[in-house]
Amino acid sequence: CLLAASYEESVAIVESKLEAFTTVEKEAFWGMNAFTIYNL
Hints:
single chain; mainly alpha; 2 helices
């Protein structure tokens, strides 16, 4: 129970942080990751 609650809490925290990002920041983040994966 405790583990599930903490997991849900961390998911909620991550989602709230993602919502705080602007669209440009999201595109830059995913673009950077795609660039890194492509170079691997």
